[in-house]
């Protein structure tokens, strides 16, 4: 553009003006990517002498002043610090690109900006990433309070750069080769820009209103990266100055953003960045930090899975080893890894391996068999194998672990359906068997649901009672639908009515889910799918599912298996999707109503205009004019009016559905939190003994031995309830798992409380007052409260 | 740097080109660079001859579709495997296995239906060209499932393209030969996984689904 400026000043002037307009639009609409990129564009235009440096400084100062106002307690609205931080981040990210030029051309102005930045950093509130950090220990140790947050860290890096005379190699400087020519071009001015007003401070200031606003602000102006430090700096930051890391991260994130959907180009640019140092470790850390980003990454996790695969293929000598190193590092620290991150890690790893023939040195992790069943590392291996089996098949996965054949113990059961009434030889036939066979014949004979309901009501229920009825009907239908997913939904579509008839309320739906879980006890995937589809066909309510998840057999497995959590995740997610769909539909219906109103008004106006038109016929004034046209217009107006009415009715109906969905949402979250609170209250040690997670972790198993419950499903490793010390099997150090079972159960469950709160924060905040009143009362255990608040990113006090 | 070089090169061409190019960069989308690479008009090189409509209508259908066609699958790939993989793109509404017209057994393709368009796009973007059940599968937008489209249209009963396929799993090769020899029953040969396949009732299962579906 700088070169163009030499030939066609007017054109470039228009470019500058258009950029200014676009930039203002981006500021007004809060389009973060655009704001960031346009500011960089302005900076490089300044470098190419198209833009006056003074103008750029004015842009910086405008943003800075807006930021300073926002965080001012009196004049601004500190809940919106996220926006202020974002503006300042943008300024800081421009400085590497133009710092050298600015210091040369407008040294006083840029010093002023630097002073302003320093001032801002001193008045803003330090943000701790509580609730959003990958590792629990970071939350707990107060590390978040002591260490620099993202902005402070970036400022530190920029300062280091400035003391280095703004010299750096990681940013291209194409304008330097054309400097002699560019100097003769005209530098244009940049028109004034203004930052939008921040939202008003709510009239009734409370912890909740502040929290809600803060949540909204953070959603709109999210922090782009949260560092996942897996490798030591001695490996990852070789030959780099501090600012280089930030620049590299920006490059990588921008490639991921702009080349999403273009696999080849994405991989190409990822590996060919214009930097003079090697960066495969940083690349891995950056991509993993996105994959695991909380609350959500900008793209679905499957995108990052694909990118990692493509990079492994593009750099077969370097990248796979780095990825493996990252996996090992995360595995070592998995006991501290956030629960949401854990499931993402499991899903990623199994999917990744399925693209590389499941090859992995499992013998390195064979020692997990010596750990208790609920040890996080062991559970991780177990769940990865479960997902691998789902993506391929049992024998294949068994073959893939042949270097550590003992791990077969962790594979899921090989069997299929657990049909109670199968007609295998040698099995006793009871009356129930006969009923089941009869039902099967009816289905094969294509009787209608209606006919079968009648049969149940007349011949089954009165004689055998509710329990047997549910068992026979559910097991038989599931068996008919057991051969494939399509078989299942076919059965549910055709005979779902039978199920709803016999299970109309939550109590019976609970029995239904128990039966489903029993039928599919050897196949977690099918159990989850069946429950999910039944909820989809509205045969069971999400509240019944929550009740089932919090039933004793499942509670006992909270720390040892993902099975109950998968079902819970599906139910909450489906509820969420439904309400999102309703919101979208309402928006589009509202648009439809507006259009219909306009059309009706227009038609009416046309009609009235025609009616009131006076024309002279034989000297007599006659209203209406052409009668044929008049009747056409009348019809048209009527039709438009009817359409308006019908559009409004559709909207009303949809809004009624939405209102009901909102109520159901509230009921769901209340039920969820109540259940969590109850089960945790039963198992957490007294608040006086364990007020923090650190306390919990160091609670000796000895002390717990006294009040251990009946063994039942909780496996004790020896009579004292103390976990066996595991032997080091050539694995990494720290194989001793010295957290007691009860403590691990609490840690896992609290972790899920935090994860759910965080994931559905937007849905939960509107119901916060009710939650506070009914669930998070005074005598709630502090650890439970902390988990909830942390997930919602709500300050404790 | 490559991009910088590219547009500098364009700058030295005729005025019209450079105006267009640079205008679109600044005035249009910031991802204009990327859209040079994303050929969004090229939704699918495949044009289904059975589609009842014009090329335009075909493309419109693809742009709105929430159905994907999945090809180059193993004949043994199960719905559960498809479900696990494609769920990572979004909530699945339905899966329809492609079946050999004669034997009524899976013949290497399927349709997956999502609830949302966004999830459908993600499936095409992120799953196509990756591995399912040890084979690299192809995932494309489909114009919309209709009854009848689950049957292979090749002469032997399977897919047309399988007549030219060279990368069979070794056990499928024999199966295909058998098809060509017009053996109507699926022979119980003890290849690895045939047992698994039969215990899932591979052959019979789809016969009965078909029965259930056609019976309505």
UniProtKB/TrEMBL annotation, chain A:
Span of domain MIF4G-like type: 278-401, 420-762
Domain of life: Eukaryota
Protein's cellular compartments: Nucleus
Domain called MIF4G: residue spans: 2-131
UniProt region (Disordered), positions on chain: 712-735
Alphabetized UniProt keyword annotations: Coiled coil, mRNA processing, mRNA splicing, Nucleus
GO molecular function, a single term: RNA cap binding
Positions in coiled-coil regions: 593-657
Primary location recorded for the protein, binned into one broad class: nucleus
GO BP terms: mRNA export from nucleus; mRNA processing; nuclear-transcribed mRNA catabolic process, nonsense-mediated decay; RNA splicing
A single Gene Ontology CC term: nuclear cap binding complex
InterPro entries: ARM-type_fold, CBP80, MIF4G-like_typ-1, MIF4G-like_typ-2, MIF4G-like_typ-3
Similarity comment text for this entry: Belongs to the NCBP1 family.
Protein name, entry field: ABH1
Species of the source: Citrus sinensis
Automatic annotation (TrEMBL), chain B:
Coarse class of the protein's main subcellular location: nucleus
InterPro entries (UniProt xref): NCBP2, NCBP2_RRM, Nucleotide-bd_a/b_plait_sf, RBD_domain_sf, RRM_dom
Intracellular or extracellular location(s): Nucleus
Keywords: mRNA processing, mRNA splicing, Nucleus, RNA-binding
Annotated SMART domains: RRM
Name the record gives this protein: Nuclear cap-binding protein subunit 2
Keyword Nucleus included in the entry's annotation: yes
Superkingdom per UniProt: Eukaryota
Metal-binding is among the record's keywords: no
Biological process, per Gene Ontology: mRNA cis splicing, via spliceosome; mRNA splicing, via spliceosome
Domain RRM: 66-144
SUPFAM superfamilies: RNA-binding domain, RBD
Family: Belongs to the RRM NCBP2 family.
Assigned GO CC terms: nuclear cap binding complex; nucleus
Gene Ontology MF annotations: RNA cap binding
């Amino acid at each position: 553009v700088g070169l163009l400026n030499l030939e066609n000043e007017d054109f470039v002037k228009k470019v500058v003006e258009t950029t200014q307009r676009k930039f203002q639009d981006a500021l007004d609409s809060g389009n973060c990517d655009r704001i960031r990129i346009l500011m960089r564009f302005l900076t490089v235009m300044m470098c190419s002498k198209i833009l006056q440096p003074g103008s750029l400084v004015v842009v910086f100062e405008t943003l800075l002043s807006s930021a300073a106002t926002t965080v001012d307690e009196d004049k601004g609205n500190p809940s919106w610090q996220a926006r202020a931080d974002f503006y300042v981040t943008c300024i800081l990210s421009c400085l590497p690109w133009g710092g050298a030029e600015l210091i040369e051309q407008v040294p006083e102005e840029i010093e002023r900006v630097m002073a302003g930045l320093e001032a801002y950093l001193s008045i803003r509130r330090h943000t701790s990433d509580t609730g959003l950090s990958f590792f629990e220990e970071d939350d707990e140790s107060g590390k978040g309070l002591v260490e620099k947050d993202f902005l402070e860290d970036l400022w530190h890096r920029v300062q280091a750069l400035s003391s280095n005379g703004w010299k750096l190699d990681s940013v291209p400087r194409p304008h330097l080769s054309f400097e002699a020519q560019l100097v003769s071009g005209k530098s244009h001015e940049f028109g004034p820009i203004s930052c939008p007003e921040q939202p008003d401070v709510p009239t009734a200031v409370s912890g909740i209103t502040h929290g809600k606003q803060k949540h909204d602000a953070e959603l709109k102006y999210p922090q782009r990266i949260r560092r996942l430090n897996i490798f030591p700096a001695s490996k990852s930051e070789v030959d780099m100055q501090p600012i280089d890391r930030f620049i590299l991260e920006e490059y990588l994130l921008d490639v991921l953003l702009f080349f999403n959907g273009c696999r080849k180009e994405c991989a190409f640019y990822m590996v060919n960045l214009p930097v003079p140092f090697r960066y495969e470790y940083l690349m891995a850390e950056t991509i993993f930090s996105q994959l695991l980003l909380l609350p959500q990454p900008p793209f679905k996790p499957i995108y990052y899975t694909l990118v990692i695969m493509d990079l492994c293929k593009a750099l077969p000598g370097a990248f796979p080893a780095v990825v493996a190193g990252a996996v090992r590092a995360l595995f070592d620290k998995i006991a501290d890894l956030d629960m949401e991150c854990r499931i993402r890690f499991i899903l990623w790893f199994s999917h990744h391996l399925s693209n590389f023939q499941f090859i992995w040195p499992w013998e390195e992790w064979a020692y997990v068999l010596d750990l208790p069943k609920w040890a996080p590392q062991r559970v991780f291996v177990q769940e990865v194998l479960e997902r691998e089996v789902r993506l391929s098949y049992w024998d294949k996965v068994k073959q893939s672990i042949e270097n550590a054949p003992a791990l077969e113990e962790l594979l899921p059961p090989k069997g299929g359906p657990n049909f109670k009434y199968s007609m295998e030889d040698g099995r006793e036939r009871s009356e129930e068997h006969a009923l089941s066979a009869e039902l099967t014949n009816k289905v094969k004979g294509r009787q209608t649901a209606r006919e079968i309901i009648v049969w149940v009501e007349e011949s089954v229920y009165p004689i055998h009672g509710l329990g047997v009825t549910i068992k026979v009907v559910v097991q038989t239908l599931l068996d008919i639908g057991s051969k494939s997913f399509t078989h299942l939904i076919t059965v549910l579509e055709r005979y779902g009515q039978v199920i709803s008839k016999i299970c109309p309320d939550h109590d019976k739906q609970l029995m239904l889910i128990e039966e489903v879980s029993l039928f599919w006890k050897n196949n977690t995937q099918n159990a989850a799918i069946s429950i999910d589809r039944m909820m989809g066909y509205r045969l069971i309510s999400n509240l019944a599912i929550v009740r089932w998840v919090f039933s004793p057999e499942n509670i006992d497995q909270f720390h040892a298996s993902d099975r109950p959590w998968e079902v819970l995740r599906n139910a909450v997610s489906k509820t969420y999707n439904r309400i999102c769909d309703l919101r979208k539909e309402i928006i589009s219906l509202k648009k439809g109503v507006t259009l219909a109103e306009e059309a009706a008004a227009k038609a009416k106006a046309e009609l009235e205009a025609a009616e009131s038109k006076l024309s002279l016929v034989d000297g007599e004034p006659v209203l209406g004019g052409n009668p044929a046209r008049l009747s056409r217009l009348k019809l048209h107006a009527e039709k438009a009016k009817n359409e308006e009415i019908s559009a409004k009715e559709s909207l009303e109906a949809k809004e009624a559905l939405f209102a009901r969905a909102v109520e159901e949402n509230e009921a769901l979250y209340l039920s969820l939190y109540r259940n969590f609170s109850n089960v945790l209250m039963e198992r957490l040690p007294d608040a006086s003994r364990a007020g923090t997670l650190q306390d919990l972790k160091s609670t000796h198993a000895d002390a717990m031995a006294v009040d251990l419950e009946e063994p039942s499903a909780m496996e004790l490793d020896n009579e004292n309830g103390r976990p066996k010390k595991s032997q080091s099997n050539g694995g990494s150090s720290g194989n001793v798992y010295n957290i007691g079972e009860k403590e691990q159960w609490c840690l896992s469950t609290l972790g899920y409380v935090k994860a759910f709160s965080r994931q559905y924060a937007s849905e939960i905040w509107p119901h916060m007052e009710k939650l506070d009143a009914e669930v998070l009362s005074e005598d709630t255990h502090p650890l439970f409260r902390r988990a909830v608040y942390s997930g919602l990113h709500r300050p404790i006090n | 740097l490559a991009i910088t070089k590219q547009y500098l090169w364009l700058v030295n061409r005729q005025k019209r080109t450079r105006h267009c190019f640079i205008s679109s960069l600044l005035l249009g989308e910031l991802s204009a660079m990327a859209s040079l690479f994303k050929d969004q008009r090229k939704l699918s090189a495949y044009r289904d001859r059975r589609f009842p409509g014009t090329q335009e209508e075909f493309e419109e259908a693809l742009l709105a579709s929430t159905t994907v066609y999945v090809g180059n699958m193993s004949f043994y790939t199960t719905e559960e495997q498809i479900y696990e993989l494609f769920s990572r793109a979004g909530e699945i509404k339905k899966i329809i296995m492609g079946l050999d017209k004669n034997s009524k057994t899976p013949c290497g393709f399927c349709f997956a239906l999502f609830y949302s368009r966004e999830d459908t796009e993600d499936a095409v973007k992120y799953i196509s060209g990756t591995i399912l059940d040890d084979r690299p599968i192809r995932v494309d937008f489909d114009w919309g499932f209709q009854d009848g489209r689950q049957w292979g249209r090749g002469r032997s009963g399977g897919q047309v393209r399988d007549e030219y396929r060279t990368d069979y799993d070794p056990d499928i090769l024999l199966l295909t030969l058998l098809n060509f020899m017009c053996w109507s029953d699926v022979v119980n040969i003890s290849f690895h996984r045939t047992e698994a396949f039969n215990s899932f009732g591979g052959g019979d299962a789809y016969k009965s689904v078909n029965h259930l579906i056609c019976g309505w």
